[in-house]
Amino acid sequence: MATLLRRWRAPLMGGVAIWLLSFPLLTWHPTASIHPVYAQGVAIAQADATDHRLVRQLERERVVAQAAQQAAQAAEAARAAEAAQALAASQVAAAPVATAIQPQAPRHVAAPPTVRANTIVIPRLGLVQPVGWYSDCSGRAAVPHWGSWRWSCAGGNNIYVMAHNPGTFTPILNLRAGDIVQYGDPSGRIHTYRVSYTTIVSNTQMWPLGATSASSLTLQTCWTWDGSRDFIVRALEI
Predict the structure, then answer these.
(1) Residue 236 burial by CB count (10 A; 0-12/13-18/19+): exposed, middle or buried?
(2) Is 100 exposed, middle or buried, given 0-12, 13-18 or 19+ CB atoms closer than 10 A?
């Protein structure tokens, strides 16, 4: 037995040594290197993907630009249509409209009021009033509420006519300088006067009743409700 072990010890030890030396070779796996063809394929694929994205981006930009251009063209067309409509409307408005000339009826011009004896006429006011006589030189007698009255006791060259306000002489409050007043005297002679001025006096002032240096017409009416003040019109004969 001992002889057998000695016989096989040397080969056995040699085999173990060989196995130990070859073990690292059996367990080592070299890292696989990238094949040049494979690497080239990957690069091409990546380039294709990049080109595809660029193409899609360019397509989107083209679509957006085309839509913007179409919108601008539509807006321009709308503005042109509005301008054309406005021009047509202005031309229609400016076009002369043929209208038949209607014959005009002759205007009726009112005849001026006739001035008769014992009548006072104020054309601008349309006032025509008969004139009676007031002969109470003391002035105590009441002036009638209808018509107008010439005071027989006025001074020389002064035809003095009075009437009530409110009443017959209310319109003379609108007389102004330059207005024309006509008076037909008892003989039928027509006197024409131009208003010189108007004024307001107290009823105690007597100068409006006095004589005048030129042929005059004096009109009097109440200014206050109690007759304490009077409205006076002085006109000179022309």
Answers:
(1) middle
(2) exposed
Q: For the segment 13-64, what is each residue's pLDDT rounded down to a tens digit?
A: 666 666 666 655 555 555 444 455 454 555 555 655 665 676 577 677 777 7
* Entry field: residues in the chain: 238
Over its C-alpha atoms, the chain yields an Rg (Å, rounded) of 65
From the number of C-beta atoms within 10 Å of its C-beta (0-12, 13-18, 19+), residue 22 rates as exposed
- For residue 25, the SS3 value is helix
The domain limits of the chain are 119-237
CATH number assigned to the domain covering 119-237: 2.40.260.10
Contacts of 216 (CB under 8 A, 6+ apart): 157, 158, 159, 193, 234, 235, 236, 237
